[in-house]
Amino acid sequence: MIVLKSIHPLLGPDLLFTLASMGHGDEIAIVDANFPAASMAHRLVGVRGAGTAEMVEAILSLLPLDRALPCPVSIMRAAEGVDVANTAIGGIRATLDRATGGAGVAELERFEFYERARRAFAIVSTGERRLYGNVLLMAGALASD
Hints:
Helices cover 30% and strands 18% of the residues. By secondary structure, the protein is α/β, with parallel strands linked by helices. Strand 3, helix 4 (89-100) and strand 4 form a beta-alpha-beta unit.
């Protein structure tokens, strides 16, 4: 195995190819172990040894967000009555704050999230076992040098 400098270790060859193939306006879904990823994905990358927050951090180390949008990130909103403290949402939000410097985050209800994920460029299926570990990231453009 060759180790590449400055590449997050969760970003394997399939995911690196997927990210490199994305263009401005393409969306990638990072989803938990409960998400029906195989039945929805056009392109599916499995990273079962990672949680959603860790995958978001790894992907955002390379993927620019679309800063022209007020909310280039969307998460699945917890259903009414669910104790959010027992979900993946807190860790995901903390990672997003750290990795994006406060990019806008929209909350989508479950079926709206499913529809967006179906249209996503790719879905990354993680091993996240806590509920609501689902995120959509909208790719931005790289500024010219």
